[in-house]
Write a structure and sequence with these properties.
single chain; 330 residues; mainly alpha; two-stranded antiparallel ribbon; two-stranded parallel ribbon; 16 helices; 3% strand; globular; disordered C terminus
């Protein structure tokens, strides 16, 4: 039967998921791509969607900007109900990639779309806010973006969902501590939480390095420059060993910011076409090279639409994005 034939995609999907957790991004991308193709041939859209979600995360880890957007276009081009988790996973990874490019405002637009899709508020599939496990599953990735994008205060809004899911055993070990370590203001408490999160993720080097990155940024925030550099260097070395160039980009950027750690919490990075860093009270404007990047393979208009090159067919995005006027256009 078609269902039986679809089972051939499952081993590749399992290998891809395991490889992703271990930080073997090349193997994860290879197996996820194979799983997606096998599932698509058997018209098993749910399996294909899960494979595309893993592939998008591997793309983000590699810093493969164009590939991730192509993966997103294929995912959102699937017909029928494929589940919220792969969509949220992919949208969150697009946010991560935008942050790698130094485009924080675009990153938070994607993150907002991911949050809306994780917990739909209207329609028959509206989620019970007490069981938003999809949101909880990707809360650490969202909290990372909030931290690295200098909006850490927003991470507190993730705590309830993660704590509930943690109590139900619905999130991985260390997830709750990771998010709390980002959201908690007290640096001593945050350090203890992040140390516990790191220990809980032993054997998963990419996740451990991501926690180290967050820890380093929190210490930099607190003005503990030497301690921050230790954790950031550890994270950078791990990312480099794993070939996680997307994370290498983020870690190097944070290391470059450490000498100005005393100003970390006082400046708000606001993007503009001229690449300016503006203080919250607009008392300081510094021109930066942030905006000097290659033109992205998509464009955002005032109406919120964007286009992806190398795809010739319009692709609809989730209802939450459509409500914002977002769609992929040839």
């Amino acid at each position: 039967t078609v269902g039986d034939r679809a089972l051939v995609a499952v081993p590749s999907l399992i290998r891809a998921t395991v490889s992703l957790g271990q930080g073997n991004l090349t193997e994860a991308a290879r197996d996820a791509g194979a799983a997606a193709e096998l599932a698509a041939r058997c018209e098993q859209q749910t399996l294909a969607a899960r494979a595309f979600g893993v592939l998008a995360e591997a793309d983000a880890g590699h810093g493969s900007y164009d590939s991730a957007f192509e993966t997103a276009a294929r995912l959102f081009g699937l017909t029928g109900e494929v589940g919220r988790a792969p969509r949220v996973q992919t949208l969150t990874m697009l946010a991560n990639l935008e942050l790698q490019r130094g485009r924080a405002s675009s990153a938070f637009a994607w993150l907002s779309a991911a949050n809306d899709d994780a917990v739909p508020q209207v329609g028959q599939r509206a989620a019970n806010p007490h069981h938003d496990t999809v949101r909880a599953a990707f809360a650490p990735a969202a909290a990372e973006i909030m931290l690295l994008g200098r909006r850490r205060g927003q991470a507190a809004g993730l705590l309830d969902a993660v704590d509930r899911a943690h109590g139900d055993g619905a999130v991985r070990p260390g997830w709750a501590e990771w998010v709390a370590g980002i959201a908690t203001d007290d640096i001593t408490d945050a350090s203890e939480l992040l140390a516990n999160a790191r220990d809980a993720m032993a054997g998963q080097p990419l996740l451990v390095a991501r926690v180290e990155l967050c820890w380093g940024v929190r210490l930099s925030e607190a003005g503990r420059v030497e301690d921050a550099e230790v954790h950031l260097h550890d994270a950078l070395a791990a990312f480099d060993r794993l070939g996680a160039q997307g994370w290498v980009t983020l870690a190097r950027r944070e290391l470059a910011l450490v000498p100005a750690a005393g100003q970390f919490g006082e400046l708000l990075v606001l993007e503009s076409l001229s690449g300016e860093v503006v203080a919250p009270d607009h008392s300081m404007v510094v021109t930066t090279p942030m905006s000097r990047v290659d033109h992205p393979p998509w464009e955002i208009t005032l109406l919120g639409s964007f286009s992806v090159r190398r795809f010739g067919e319009p692709v609809s995005l989730p209802l939450s994005l459509a409500a914002q006027g977002l769609k992929i256009v040839a």
